[in-house]
Amino acid sequence: MGFTRVLVEGDALNIVSRINQVTPDLFSIGHLVEVAKFLMRGFQLCKMQYARREANNVAHALAKATLNFGEDLYWVDKCPDSVMALVATHYNACFS
Questions:
Q1: Can you tell me the distance from the alpha carbon of 76 to that of 66, in angstroms, rounded to the nearest whole number?
Q2: Helices (H), strands (E): how many in the chain?
Q3: Cα angle for residues 14, 84, 78 (degrees, 5° grid)
Q4: Which of 96, 14, 87, 32 is nearest to 55 (CA)?
Q5: What does each C-alpha distance from 21 to 6, 10, 32, 37, 94 come to in angstroms?
Q6: pLDDT tens digit string along 10-52?
Q7: d(Cα 51, Cα 77) in Å, to the nearest integer?
Q8: How many CA atoms lie within 13 A of 23 on its CB side?
């Protein structure tokens, strides 16, 4: 898809914190954390930040929009209007 700069938000503070640590994660899910760190290095810039579950409306709406499909969906230039409205609200809240 050609993305070089990515912001990833997660609502599990413990996981976000572990991914943002520089030292290797040696806990039970450490291998998954290390895979995430490895994948993040494939971007010019990739940040992982915590988002409260209440602020995670965009991800919830996207997940809900795909429930009726039995295959992977990709929206690159345009997403459903209902989701786009949430994206605009989220963007304004983050950058105003």
A1: 15
A2: 4, 2
A3: 110
A4: 87
A5: 18, 15, 13, 9, 24
A6: 888 999 999 999 988 888 888 999 999 999 999 999 999 998 8
A7: 24
A8: 3
* Entry pTM: 0.63
Please say if the pLDDT value at position 3 is more than 70: yes
Contact 46, 10 (CB under 8 A): no
CA angle 9, 80, 5 (to 5 degrees): 35
CB atoms within 10 A of CB 70: 5
Q: Which tokens go with 57?
A: 């409306």
Helix (H) or strand (E) segment spanning residue 64: helix 57-65
